[in-house]
Amino acid sequence: MTRLVVDAGERTDTWEHLAAGDAPGGRDFTVEFVRWLAERRDLLTHAERTGCSLGVRLAIDSDPGALVEDVESLSLIVIEIPDSSDGRFFSIAARVREHLRYGGELRVTGDVAPDQLAFMQRCGINAFELVDDVDMERFIRRYERFYQSSGPMTTGDNLIRLARRRHVSARDTVSFAKRKSAIGAGTGQVRAGDAGSPPFTLP
């Protein structure tokens, strides 16, 4: 099971996250990005007719630019993270906030790493689905501390560059861990300058 934090408070997820082929009912609902592309007009019509809120779930390789014409109709955008070391989700979040000017709930789900919280917040992510073993009180304290100490959020192209740097940092952290593991197993050697970047830790 997962637990949901939205804007520094634990919440119950009231959304219905539809699988492929599931028909929307009378609740707020999300659909996968590929379904949105195929059924966009029908989904918008259903939401308008029923008064339900509509959301979209983005895969790690989705192009959020396809939402530009309808972003004001979306109340929730979810970014699915299969692996927290794949930093592309930072760039997706930054584009959603800065290029699309999206002001609704921007959520991450999947392999959400609490030690990446500060960077996720700087990219505009304000909702997090967390596994049960995460210390929820500590996570929320860290969330609140970011807003108390960080000052204005980075904006514009600077935010995109920040997301890209975080992507590189995540990639280098994986390489560092693999090389360290190889050394420990006696299967590899590291030359000077090859150690990579140390793991990112939450301030």
Question: Can you walk me through this structure?
Answer:
- The protein is an alpha/beta fold and 203 residues long.
- The protein has one domain (2-184): TIM Barrel (Alpha-Beta Barrel).
- Helix content is 38%, strand content 19%.
- It is built from five helices and eight strands.
- It has helices spanning 33-50, 88-98, 117-122, 136-149, 156-184; strands at residues 2-6, 9-11, 16-17, 29-32, 54-58, 74-81, 105-110, 127-131.
- The protein has an eight-stranded mixed beta sheet with strand order 2-1-8-7-6-5-4-3.
- Helix 2 links the parallel strand 6 (74-81) and strand 7 (105-110).
- Helix 2 (88-98) packs antiparallel against helix 5 (156-184).
- The radius of gyration is 19 Å and the shape is globular.
- The two termini are 27 Å apart.
- Residues 148-161 and 187-203 have low confidence and may be disordered.
Write down how many β-strands occur, each being a DSSP E stretch of 2 or more residues.
8
Oligomeric organization of the protein chains: single chain
- The general outline is globular
When the domains are counted, the total is 1
Structural class: alpha/beta
Major sheet description: 8 strands, mixed
Contiguous uncertain segments of 5+ residues: 148-161, 187-203
Gyration radius over CA = 19 Å
- CATH level-two architecture: Alpha-Beta Barrel
Strand order of the largest sheet: 2-1-8-7-6-5-4-3
Contiguous helical run count: 5
Give the C-level CATH assignment. Answer: Alpha Beta
